[in-house]
């Protein structure tokens, strides 16, 4: 009987404590959960930041190597292998650098393949638009008019209107559609052409 009474008293005291301090307990639990989430987020952020710093350093090394006059086919093969095993913005930059080198060597087909690969490597819409601009210009250089037009239609965003209009004007000029070409060139003159390009540079600066 005494044991039963003692248990009831303990239960009553616990219930009274819970009722009296339930708001404080709820706030404490909420803060604890928030702190745990914040800690997990910070750890993930630190990890991602470290990875991006390493990727940035690797890209700069490869970019410097590709810009040297001594860059040969062996180096191009090594860089190509590197760009094939990963997929992020810096790998897209590597593929774009390779495309530029292939253009300089006159190998437009390989350059086009590198640009198409770089589109898959990044999810950044602005960077994808920049890549598509280069791809459309390259396709136009090869007289692949329909392919260039198709590439241009996939570029979205007001900041790219002028650059798209410029290439579109070139296409219409080649096709002999001077009226359409003139309208496109006038549109290119009326828009702020470099806004998105500057945004890409800002977004990819190391933190």
From TrEMBL:
Major site of localization recorded for this protein: membrane
Transmembrane stretches, start-end: 24-42
Top-level division of the source organism's lineage: Bacteria
InterPro entries linked to this entry: SecYEG/CpoB_TPR, TPR-like_helical_dom_sf, YfgM
A GO term for molecular function: protein-containing complex binding
Occurrences of domain Ancillary SecYEG translocon subunit/Cell division coordinator CpoB TPR (ranges): 16-206
Membrane topology: Single-pass type II membrane protein
Cell membrane is among the record's keywords: yes
Localisation: Cell membrane
Lineage of origin: Bacteria, Pseudomonadati, Pseudomonadota, Gammaproteobacteria, Enterobacterales
Presence of the UniProt keyword RNA-binding in the record: no
Signal peptide positions on this chain: none
One annotated Gene Ontology cellular component of this protein: plasma membrane
Record's keyword terms, sorted: Cell membrane, Chaperone, Membrane, Transmembrane, Transmembrane helix
Name this polypeptide is given: Ancillary SecYEG translocon subunit
Protein family per UniProt: Belongs to the YfgM family.
Species assigned in the record: secondary endosymbiont of Heteropsylla cubana
